[in-house]
Specification:
The complex is a heterodimer of chains A (471) and B (210). Helices cover 34% and strands 17% of the residues of chain A. By secondary structure, chain A is α/β, with parallel strands linked by helices. Chain A folds into two domains: 275 residues, Aconitase, domain 3 (2-Layer Sandwich); 183 residues, Aconitase, domain 3 (2-Layer Sandwich), CATH 3.30.499.10. Chain A has a five-stranded parallel β-sheet, with helices on one face. The relative contact order of chain A is 0.13. Chain B is of the alpha/beta class and 210 residues long. Chain B has two domains: 168 residues, Aconitase, domain 4; 37 residues, no CATH class. Chain B contains eight helices and seven strands, in the order E-H-H-E-H-E-H-E-H-E-E-E-H-H-H. Chain B has a seven-stranded mixed β-sheet with strand order 4-3-2-1-5-6-7, with helices on both faces. Chain B is globular, with a radius of gyration of 20 Å. The chains are: A alpha/beta (471), B alpha/beta (210). At the A-B interface, strand 2, helix 2, helix 3, helix 5 and strand 8 of A face helix 4, helix 7 and helix 8 of B.
C-alpha cells in the first residue's frame, strides 16, 4: 500500500497500536527548555521515576535569558534565575546534556539542535514548544507537546500519539527578488487560515520548495504551526543530507552510507493518498506583512488593510489601523530581528545586505538577536556584525528574546514593531505592543526608513547606486 | 470525591476566534517551577487594564458570571504556544469545561491530560449555546459525560469524545504508569530501531563528545 512520508515516519516509530486512533510513538530526540520542563521533572520526582533513556534528551536555557549586548551571565530576575538553575539541577541529576546560560553553544533550541547536527532525516523529535515543526525541513517529524507529555517522554521515551491526516501543499515557480520563505509561509497562512491545517501534518512539495536553502526550509516548516499544523515535512534531498553530514560530527559519519541509503527512502510514494491538497505559485508572491493579531491576517506590502468583519474589527482596534488604508508607510518605533523563525546566518546576511551603508532611522530602536552563539560568531567573522553596528542596530546575545518577551526585551504599550518572529498575538511582544510580522529583509527596510517599506524599493536603489558607481 | 461525570454551572461567553494561549496565560506568569498561582494570570490582559484594575465590561468580571465553571469559546480556542500553564490556570480559576467549535491541538492534549473537559460542537450549535449563556437569566449549562450531552437553557445536544479521552476524563489514568508497564516492549523496539539506524542512538549525549 502506498504511503505518505508522514505515514512512513509514524510507522517506523510505532512501538504499539493502542486503539483505532492512537499509537505509542517512539521519540528519537527530546529537547527541553527552562519554562515548560520544571513541572515535568517535579512530577517524575514525586512519582519516584527516572529518565528512561537520558542520551536521547537535550536541554537549553533560551526563553528567559537576557540578551544584553555584553552578556552578563547573571539573570537578575529571581524567578527566571531559579528556572535556569532548576534546569541545571534537573539535567545534572538525570544525566541530560545541557547548554547552560554561559555555554558558547547556547542558543534558541530550534536553532542549535540543527546546527549541532542533532536533527537527522527520519527522526521523531519532540519538545515542549510549538515551533518544533521546524525539523520537517530535514524530513524529521517534529511537533510541540505540553508539560504532561514532557514528563511522559522523560519517563518512557514515548508518547501516546493520535495520527494526524495528510495534507500536501504544492509550491511551484520561483520566489521573486525581495521575497523569501517567510513571505511564502505568510502567504500560505493568509490563504488557508490560522486553522487551515489543524488536524494535519503538511508535506511541502514542488520546485519552489526544492530550491529553498535549509535555513529557508526551517523558516517554512517552523511557521506551519501558525496554520494549526501538527507537523510539517519536506522530503530530504541531497541538500538536506549534505547539511546533516556537515553538521553532525559523530556516528552519522561512521554510518554515512547506511544512513544515506535509509534517508533516500524518505519520500511519499507516487500514488500515496493525501486527505487535502493546496497549490500555490511562488512567482506571484510579494513581500508580506501582517496587519492584525493572528498570523493569517497578512497582506502583500503593496496591499491595503481589508474591510472589517467581527474578528478583524477587534484586531484592527488593537493594531490601530484603518480598514482600506495602505499597510506601506505605517511608522514603526521598534525593529526586532530574531527568533527560531528568522535568526539563522542566512537571515542575518539578508539584513546586512539591505542595511550596509545605511542608518537606522531616527527614533527607531532596532535589535538583532542571533539565534545561537555559533550564529553570532559566524556573523562576526563574516563582518555582518560590523555592518549592523555601523548602521545603528543593537547586536545582542542569543536567545528567544522579544519573540515572546519572557526576558527583559519587550515592547512598551503602543509601540509598533517590525518583527521577524512568528506570532502577532495581542500582547505577545509586550502588553499593548503591536507586532507586524515580516521577513528579515523587510524588517531591515523598516529599520532604515522608520516605516513599513517595500524592501524591493531599497534593493532597486542599491542596484542603481551600484550601476552608477561601477557602470 | 467530586462527581466527575457531570459538570453543571454558570457558563461565560468568550467567543473570540483564535484565542491563543498567550492571551489565556501571558508570559509574566510563566516564570515558576511549579504550577501555583496561575489563577491570577488567567486571561490577564482581558480581565485587567494597564493599571491592573479589573475591566468591568469583561465577562468574567461581571457579577452575573462570578463563579463561572464553563467557558463557551470561539473556533481554534487555545491555539499557539504549547504552554500547559493555560490549562492549569483555567482549572485553578475554577473552569472545568470549555465548549467551542474547535481547539488548538496541543491545547486539546494538554486539557485531556489534566481532565479539563473540552466539548467540540458545530459552529451553529455553539452559536445556539452562546445565545443562551449571553443572557444571565439563561446562562447555566449542564454537561453529562455519562450520557455525552450538553444541556443549555434552550437546547440539549450530543457531543463526542474518543473512547480513550472519555475514559481518562471519567476515571483518570496514570498514563505514564500504563506506558511503563510496557517497558520491555519499548526497549525491544528501541534496540531494533538502533540496530537498523545506529546513527540515532545517544544522539543528544554524543553532542558534547564529538
Amino acid at each position: 500500500m502506498a504511503k505518505t512520508l508522514y505515514q512512513k515516519l509514524v510507522d517506523t516509530h510505532t512501538v504499539a497500536r493502542l486503539d483505532a486512533q492512537n499509537v505509542l510513538l517512539y521519540a528519537d530526540l527530546h529537547l527541553m527548555n527552562e519554562y515548560t520542563s520544571p513541572q515535568a521533572f517535579a512530577g517524575l520526582r514525586e512519582a519516584g521515576r527516572v529518565v528512561a533513556v537520558p542520551g536521547q534528551h537535550m536541554a537549553v536555557v533560551d526563553h528567559i535569558i537576557p540578551t544584553h549586548p555584553v552578556r552578563i551571565r547573571v539573570i537578575e530576575d529571581p524567578a527566571s534565575a531559579l528556572q535556569a538553575s532548576n534546569l541545571a539541577k534537573n539535567c545534572a541529576e538525570h544525566g541530560i546534556v545541557l547548554f547552560d546560560t554561559g555555554d558558547a553553544l547556547q542558543g534558541i533550541e530550534h536553532v542549535i539542535a540543527p546546527e549541532l547536527g542533532m536533527i537527522r532525516p527520519g527522526m521523531v523529535v519532540l519538545c515542549g514548544d510549538s515551533h518544533t515543526t521546524t525539523y520537517g525541513a530535514f524530513g524529521a517529524l517534529g511537533f510541540g507537546i505540553g508539560t504532561s507529555e514532557v514528563e511522559h517522554v522523560l519517563a518512557t521515551q514515548t508518547l501516546v500519539y493520535r495520527r494526524a491526516q495528510d495534507m500536501r501543499i504544492h509550491v511551484e515557480g520561483e520566489l521573486p527578488t525581495g521575497t523569501s520563505a517567510k513571505d511564502l509561509i505568510l502567504h500560505i497562512i493568509s490563504r488557508i487560515g490560522a486553522q487551515g491545517a489543524r488536524g494535519y501534518v503538511v508535506e511541502f512539495v514542488g520546485s519552489a520548495i526544492t530550491t529553498l536553502s535549509m535555513e529557508a526550509r526551517m523558516t517554512l516548516c517552523n511557521m506551519a504551526v501558525e496554520a494549526g499544523a501538527r507537523g510539517a515535512l519536506i522530503a530530504p534531498d541531497a541538500k538536506a543530507t549534505r547539511y546533516v553530514l556537515e553538521h553532525a560530527r559523530d556516528a552519522a559519519h561512521t554510518y554515512a552510507s547506511e544512513a544515506l541509503a535509509d534517508w533516500q527512502q524518505l519520500l511519499s510514494d507516487t500514488d500515496a493518498h493525501f486527505d487535502a491538497e493546496h497549490r500555490f505559485n511562488a512567482s506571484e508572491i510579494a513581500p508580506y506583512v501582517t496587519w492584525g493579531t493572528s498570523p493569517d491576517q497578512a497582506i502583500p506590502v503593496t496591499g491595503t488593510v481589508p474591510q472589517a468583519d467581527a474578528a478583524s474589527a477587534r484586531a484592527l482596534r488593537y493594531t490601530g489601523l484603518q480598514a482600506g488604508s495602505p499597510i506601506e508607510g505605517v511608522p514603526v518605533q521598534r525593529v526586532f530581528i530574531g527568533s527560531c523563525t528568522n535568526a539563522r546566518i542566512e537571515d542575518l546576511r539578508e539584513v546586512a545586505a539591505i542595511v550596509r551603508g545605511r542608518r537606522v532611522a531616527a527614533g527607531v530602536r532596532a535589535m538583532v538577536v542571533p539565534g545561537s552563539g555559533a550564529v553570532r560568531r559566524q556573523a562576526e567573522q563574516e563582518g555582518i556584525a560590523d555592518v549592523l553596528i555601523a548602521s545603528g542596530f543593537e547586536w545582542r546575545q542569543p536567545g528567544c528574546s522579544m519573540c515572546l518577551a519572557m526576558n527583559d526585551d519587550f515592547l512598551a504599550p503602543g509601540e509598533r514593531c517590525a518583527s521577524t518572529t512568528n506570532r502577532n498575538f495581542e500582547g505577545r511582544q509586550g502588553r499593548g505592543g503591536i507586532t507586524h510580522l515580516m521577513s528579515p529583509a523587510m524588517a531591515a527596510a523598516a529599520a532604515i526608513t522608520g516605516r513599513i517599506t517595500d524592501v524591493r524599493q531599497l534593493q532597486a536603489a542599491q542596484l542603481s547606486h551600484t550601476e552608477a558607481t561601477h557602470g | 470525591m467530586a462527581d466527575t461525570t457531570r459538570i453543571e454551572g454558570i457558563a461565560a461567553p468568550l467567543p473570540t476566534p483564535n484565542l491563543d494561549t498567550d492571551q489565556i496565560m501571558p508570559k509574566q506568569f510563566l516564570r515558576g517551577i511549579d504550577k501555583a498561582g496561575l489563577d491570577k494570570g488567567l486571561l490577564y490582559d482581558l480581565r485587567y487594564d494597564a493599571d491592573h484594575q479589573p475591566r468591568g465590561e469583561f465577562v468574567l468580571n461581571q457579577p452575573a458570571y462570578q463563579g463561572a465553571s464553563i467557558l463557551v469559546g470561539g473556533s481554534n480556542f487555545g491555539c499557539g504556544s504549547s504552554r500547559e500553564h493555560a490549562v492549569w490556570g483555567l482549572q485553578q480559576f475554577g473552569i472545568r469545561a470549555v465548549i467551542a467549535p474547535s481547539f488548538g491541538e496541543i491545547f486539546y492534549s494538554n486539557a485531556m491530560n489534566n481532565r479539563l473537559l473540552l466539548v467540540m460542537l458545530d459552529v451553529a450549535d455553539v452559536q445556539r449555546i452562546l445565545a443562551d449563556v449571553s443572557n444571565p437569566a439563561t446562562h447555566r449549562i449542564a454537561i453529562d459525560v455519562q450520557t455525552m450531552t450538553v444541556k443549555s437553557h434552550s437546547v440539549t445536544l450530543p457531543f463526542t469524545l474518543s473512547e480513550r479521552h472519555r475514559h481518562m476524563f471519567l476515571h483518570g489514568l496514570d498514563m505514564i504508569g500504563a506506558t511503563l508497564a510496557r517497558w520491555s516492549e519499548i526497549d525491544a523496539f528501541q534496540q531494533a530501531h538502533w540496530h537498523t539506524r545506529p546513527w540515532l542512538r545517544n544522539i543528544a549525549a554524543t553532542t558534547r563528545t564529538r
